[in-house]
């Protein structure tokens, strides 16, 4: 049977914006000026937020983490060492293996990726995982 189209699942703006707000709140709780980005599975930016006092380069880094985890469907810190150099080079810098990006799953549905920047990668990853928990998204397999 031949098909003419495919259906895709993607995070809504409302949920993406809520994830960004939660991430910025967690960053503030930890005294970190956080930047958060949410992308859908096609690596399209859906929502973005930047806390006052965050660094300019964190803007790009958060989006690259979101794109990477949305595309590869795993935490950016869990992407293989073999891809550490080739992934950024092969995507013109659009993707990264720096920790702090997590895929967003509700049950078995993959809806996008969240990227956190502004602190050391390990802290960014902690904020990302806590954001998923507060959002009600799945965290299994993404533990630090």
UniProtKB/TrEMBL annotation:
SUPFAM superfamilies: GlcG-like. It comes from the Bacteria. PANTHER family: PROTEIN GLCG, SLR1406 PROTEIN. This is Heme-binding protein. It comes from Microbacterium capsulatum.
